[in-house]
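User: I'm writing a tutorial on reading structure tokens. Could you give me a worked example: one chain, its sequence, then its tokens, then a sentence or two explaining what the tokens reveal?
Assistant: Sure. Here is the example chain.
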Amino acid sequence: MERKRLGMRIVMATIMVVIESVSLLRVNALSIYEIQYTDDANGVSPQNGNVVDCLGGIVTHKQSGGRPRLIVQDPNYPAGWSAIQVKGWSSDAFDNVETGDWISLTNVLVEDFKGTTFLQYQGEYDPNLIVVSTGNSLPRPLVVAVDEIAAPAEAPDAWAVADHTGEKYESMLIKVVAVSVTALGQGKAYDNYLLTSNVDPNLSCWVSDYMNTDKEKGLIYHPSVKIGRRFCGVTGILEQYTGDSEGIYYDYYQLLTRNSEDFIVDQIADLDGDCDVDFVDFGVLAGHWLEAGCSEPDWCGGADLVKDPLEPEVNRFDLLRFTEYWLEGK
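And here are its predicted structure tokens:
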């Protein structure tokens, strides 16, 4: 009983800390959507230059280093304008923050820097970071068409996008599907590679692995990236880059992968090989329903998803696994 009382006191104390922390937010605290949404042709935030409180969102990626970054996304706005980058000005600024935490911030400077909107966590403004909750599921990546984040067109003195259609996806987790690596060495730092649609070879976008925590030290690209490599899907954080270098003007979007899991070579429940999971795949599963003796290399047409040696058949466990991936790649 005493242990139970102690546990309750700890829980209540934690709740009070969260309540006191959240109370630091001013009543006019802004959502990420309110900071990011803009009609400006160049994507500049209407809050650019202002010091604000932000209601925040879920940390989808954490980048360490001298100027650490957090990528934060509010799942309440899944269609766009819902994510932002937070840049720290000391290496230990975000030591107590983990991916999956919901954070809010006070006294942060909104700054559009080289095309991307940042919340600058600078000491001169007396900022504060509040961990509202932990262990949250990350927002599901939004599947977008390749041409929504299209690669820039090349000119003698510029690499620039024709329009800023992709602006609403800035810093969000998004995914492109059914693509192949067709070129390396793109962009200002030559660290971008070209992903081209397997459906329409006229559509391409740029991807960079500079934030990828599984990239080998000293290498530019993740080991999965090779000319000709086909992916059912590539997930990442969309970032805009603008600037001048050696007389060339840059204005482009790049999809930043986070780890090896962002590269999907095969959809697990894609039974017809078209990189998505839909009714056609369900038909394949149904066609093998209760088929026994599933084994390598066919596994009953791939319908034995669980591959349990004690039950080598297509059954309810495979159906449950199938539903986990329903509409993946769509």
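What the tokens reveal: The two ends are 52 Å apart (CA to CA). The chain has a mean pLDDT of 91.
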